[in-house]
TrEMBL record:
Domain Cation efflux protein transmembrane, first and last residues per copy: 130-351
Subcellular location per the Swiss-Prot or TrEMBL entry: Membrane
Keyword Zinc in annotation: no
InterPro entries in alphabetical order: Cation_efflux, Cation_efflux_CTD, Cation_efflux_CTD_sf, Cation_efflux_TM, Cation_efflux_TMD_sf, CDF_Transporter
Lineage of origin: Eukaryota, Sar, Stramenopiles, Ochrophyta, Bacillariophyta
Entries under SUPFAM superfamilies matching the protein: Cation efflux protein cytoplasmic domain-like, Cation efflux protein transmembrane domain-like
Record GO cellular component, one term: membrane
Predominant place of localization: membrane
Topology term for the membrane: Multi-pass membrane protein
Organism (species): Cyclotella cryptica
Keyword Transmembrane helix: yes
Keywords assigned: Membrane, Transmembrane, Transmembrane helix, Transport
Protein name: Cation efflux protein cytoplasmic domain-containing protein
Length: 465
């Protein structure tokens, strides 16, 4: 049975001749590609054609395998390690072959690797450790200030600091668990979604605690303005009872916290924004969710301590301004609730698989479309899989493309996409024509599945029905 018109390849209809494979080529054909991506000479190809049987040809192809990315360090004759391994062993992967062929000492001594290690990993650890110890110290400072002044503004800031320490411990635990289960049998796809789940838990804790401080502040303000109000105005004795100890050291300690937290906020934001090597620097698609949450803690502390310090100094200056203290606590609580609501909403979007930005999808399309001259991109999908993205690519190759050739192209395209920092995993689906329907939708609807079934096994000229 001839192929259905619906399955006729767009490339075949235009009469474009199939291009030779960049690694294995074709006898007497010049594909006009970059010489770095064609590592098999014309004489070698003649030798390949002259081989007597299929087994010899497979052995020959296996001996000349090379990663046809232009920056590959492998060449013909550099495959002793790969040649000595089974065809589907881990070492048969071109990218892994590069890793195993290169001595470990050279990787350790590479200045570029050292630079990348110190520029991100060590700075990230420094930012998290420093944030934790500073938060503990500030928590003790606020506790002393609250015991001295009984200020509700300081109480709101103290609750924020307590939850800062708790939330940072939660983030550290979820991050450690997600990294340990990356290759676990219980979590085949990794547990990267534990990180946004930890951030979401912190958002809930912050919200509940802030609601408690908000309730206390409103009750205090109501009691002072209405319950203790005399006929001639505010009762001075009640007003004076809100601020009993004019300890200005508490004000200066709260004021100094603002600058410390501002510096930590800048550090966490700088280290937490990760840009992949493929990015042009204009857009940053991947943000470290753990460091982003810690940075938000620092920024909240900056504002809460600033408001608490101002409310405290005004209340200390004039006992008739006592109401500014609960008002300051209300402002701090409302800001923290709103801030963590936004953070929780963002984490829910990551957990539920929100689509990636259109700019990022356009970059993926350009990478895949320029990867190989024979490859045509049909569909590009990218959506959140935790803090990073899961990418699905559907690409079209000519009908006469050999199985091992299409496999190698798809695998190397997967390597290329997964090398981006913001990509968690990439799946490449290879087809020989574009489809007028979404396979995932068709598979779930029996009527559509029956409708498109006659076109599913016609490449060999025999229908499945």
């Amino acid at each position: 049975m001839p192929p259905s018109p619906l399955r006729s390849s767009s490339r075949a209809s235009t009469g474009v001749a199939p291009q030779p494979h960049p690694k294995y080529g074709s006898v007497g054909a010049d594909d006009g590609r970059d010489p770095q991506r064609s590592n098999v000479s014309h004489s070698t190809l003649k030798s390949f054609v002259a081989l007597p049987d299929e087994a010899s040809k497979i052995a020959f192809l296996d001996s000349t395998r090379t990663h046809h990315h232009p920056h590959s360090k492998l060449s013909v004759g550099d495959h002793d390690t790969i040649r000595s391994t089974p065809l589907h062993s881990p070492l048969s992967s071109p990218r892994l072959g590069v890793m195993f062929d290169q001595p470990l000492s050279s990787l350790e001594d590479d200045p570029k690797n050292d630079k990348l290690f110190f520029s991100h990993s060590n700075l990230r650890k420094l930012a998290l450790d420093l944030s934790l110890w500073v938060n503990i110290f500030i928590l003790l400072t606020k506790a002393v200030a609250y015991l001295e002044t009984r200020s509700l503004s300081i109480l709101a800031a103290l609750v924020d600091s307590i939850l800062d320490v708790v939330s940072q411990w939660i983030l550290s635990y979820t991050e450690r668990r997600s990294s340990k289960t990356r290759s676990s049998a219980h979590y085949p796809a990794g547990a990267a979604r534990l990180e946004p789940l930890g951030v979401l838990s912190c958002a809930a804790l912050m919200g509940f605690a802030s609601f408690g401080v908000l309730k206390e502040s409103l009750e205090t303000l109501y009691e002072g303005l209405w319950t203790a109000r005399g006929e001639g105005g505010l009762d001075d004795t009640v007003a004076a009872s809100f601020i009993e100890d004019e300890n200005w050291s508490s004000f200066w300690s709260m004021f100094s916290v603002v600058f410390v937290k501002l510096a930590l906020y800048a550090l966490c934001m700088k280290v937490g924004h990760v840009r992949s090597e493929e990015n042009d620097g204009e857009n940053m698609y991947y943000v470290d969710s753990t460091l982003e949450a810690v940075a938000q803690d620092h920024w909240n502390d900056c504002l809460s301590n600033a408001v608490a310090a101002v409310a405290l100094v005004l209340a200390l200056s004039n006992e008739h301004l006592w109401c500014l203290d609960p008002i300051g606590a209300i402002i701090i609580s409302l800001y923290i609730i709103n801030s963590w609501y936004s953070t929780g909403k963002e984490q829910i979007e990551q957990l539920t698989g929100k689509a990636a930005p259109s700019e990022f999808i356009d970059e993926l399309y350009e990478m895949a479309n320029n990867f190989d001259s024979k490859m045509e991109v049909d569909v590009v999908r990218a959506y959140h899989f935790g803090p990073k993205f899961l990418v699905e690519l559907e690409v079209v190759l000519p009908r006469d493309t050999l199985l091992f050739e299409s496999h190698d192209l798809g695998m190397e395209l997967q390597y290329e996409i997964e090398s981006r920092e913001e990509v968690e995993r990439c799946f490449v689906h290879i087809d020989y024509e574009t489809r007028p329907y979404d396979e995932h939708v068709v598979s779930k609807v029996p009527e559509l599945r029956e409708r498109y079934r006659p076109y599913n096994r016609t490449y060999s000229g025999v229908s499945s029905i």
